[in-house]
Amino acid sequence: MGAERLYSQDEAAELLQISRLTLGKWLRDGRIRGVKIGRLWRIPESALDEIAKSGTRAKE
User: What is the mean pLDDT of the chain?
Assistant: First the structure.
């Protein structure tokens, strides 16, 4: 079993069609799962799948 792909904030924001700032807020608020490596956030592919399935407004 291979390792899960991790996306940068820029890549994830583009895939979700939201701004990088919005994605940063979602990460800090826990609306989307992410892994902080040093000062950089990485978003697992499964977290993007969860948002896609539930919709971006699921926790508002």
Answer: 89
Contacts 24+ apart (CB under 8 A), 6-14: 6/35, 6/42, 6/43, 6/44, 6/45, 7/42, 7/43, 7/44, 7/45, 7/48, 8/40, 8/41, 8/42, 8/43, 9/40, 9/41, 9/43, 12/43, 12/48
Q: Which residue's entry shows tokens 């992410």?
A: 34
pTM comes to: 0.81
Summarize pLDDT for 29-46 with one digit per residue, the tens.
999 999 999 999 999 999
Nearest CA to 34 among 7, 54, 13, 3? 7
